[in-house]
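Lab meeting, action items carried over

1. Structure of the two-component assembly. Owner: GW. Status: complete.
Input record:
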Amino acid sequence: MHTKTLSELSAALHNGDISSVELTQHYLDRISTYNGELNAFITVAEEHALKQARNADVQLQQKTAGKLTGIPLAHKDIFCTQGIRTSCASKMLDNFIAPYDATVVEKTNAAGMVTLGKTNMDEFAMGSSNETSFYGQVQNPWDKQCVPGGSSGGSAAAVAARLAPIATGTDTGGSIRQPASLCNLTGLKPTYGRISRYGMIAFASSLDQAGPMAHSAEDAALLLNEMAGFDPRDSTSVEQTVPDYSASLNDAIEGLKIGLPKEYFSEGLDPQVASVIETAIKTYESLGATIKEITLPNTSLAVPTYYVVAPAECSSNLSRMDGVRFGHRCEDPKDLLDLYQRSRGEGFGEEVKRRIMIGTYALSAGYYDAYYLKAQQCRRLISDDFKQAFNDVDVIMGPTAPTTAFKLGDKTDDPVAMYLADIYTISTNLAGLPGMSIPAGFVDGLPVGLQIIGNYFDEARLLNVAHRYQQATDWHQQTPDNFK
Amino acid sequence: MSLDKTDVEKIAYLARLAIDDNDIPDYARDLTTIFGLVEQLSSVDTTGISPMAHPLDAVQRLRPDEVTETDQREQFQAIAPKTEAGVYLVPQVIE
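Predicted assembly:
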């Protein structure tokens, strides 16, 4: 049952071959068997899930059910869920039960989907390995000595080990695509503004975007159909029609113009990963696409630009965690300053503190122009590179990450080495473009992801391009041995 | 650029973060490395480039000035560390 696609599960539910309660229980059983070793979930919402499943079964019996009614999913623990703890993997929010649902959660609830639980992640989504979580690291189901990637590492591990058929993630600098790459999943970060950020705990507001993490483009399209759309409660939500992302999956890709940025195939890229990506590109050629080498000359500015913009925004966003209205409060504060300082000092982990400090410094009097303004100008240069490139090509392809999954603990002592894990994904967040990672092969038993970047609001084309590849290959159907 | 103990203490104060004295050397080292990475930006010629704050260069959307929220004080305060008579309690700030 846990190897079926969403469409197959939907058919089984609608035909009455299985009930949502049975399907939900099946996944809850898998979670109870495997979560101990993987640590993919922070909170398992068993009671809540079975209640949603019973409601779904009523709708299925009454023939009022939609396509995804009764299908379980896992939400990254960054999305507020009324009545279920939302920790953002931080001690700061260890006791936080949101008084409302995030729009994304509201939408999956309205679609009749069943929330299995809340997945582990890097604390406040700051990390590329899931090692900054207050609740401990997550193991990669492909090799438990390795990281699953981050920050949506719990969602990635849960879907890869088939503890959930699909999950939500968020991506500020690569946090959907990089773990998707490291865990052999199809992950999509849509255009900035495509999915509502309401109720999604903010890290860097001008970069954050939610998206689906799935086994295939076909499954991702189904969830994106539910997640996308305008929301007046998010001031940066975009008022633009949502197409049916499933409708165009099979469109022809003959004549598709693929751009390969030479900067994405240079120094720092593992040669074996490069060779997997080259093979994937050849597959696209055999499917009728044409290849063109392009240049994104300001690529080397992406990581330094990001490490000003993102921390600056996070230092501002996280100032709301002050020990007054919700979250952790220190014992016996002697005055208000002590209350703020100790509540925050105790509540935040090391990486979060580091980033708050970077941002605070970059925004402080006398440094604003040199850091923040300069970074915003460089951000424009990076974005203009893409505009230029999309004059000549339809999509851009390259590796999602420079290496396969690295060993747990390998980069925890060197923040800059960790930051470079996102070297190919960060630019699209800065530009606000949609990007995807799809399974493209393996190096020494570890998955490699192919990144596909599209023009603004071109998610349908990305999914179409990914789907055609998945019709011709079976990398996305591989399951790690211990979780079959 | 190199950040020292005083810099770290000043930044931590501005950010209202209590940090352990023993951790200061590590923060100083890490922040120095990170700003070393950021330093690359200073050599980029950005004359005449307008700063980009929003990926789609959108402007703030306005809504009609109407009351849309209802009073949910009790629900919101149920998760607060300390409240009394409908207000959030903090240590005394006015003598």
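2. GW to write a short summary for the group page. Key points so far: Chain B touches chain A through 50 residues (CB under 8 Å). The mean pLDDT of chain B is 93.
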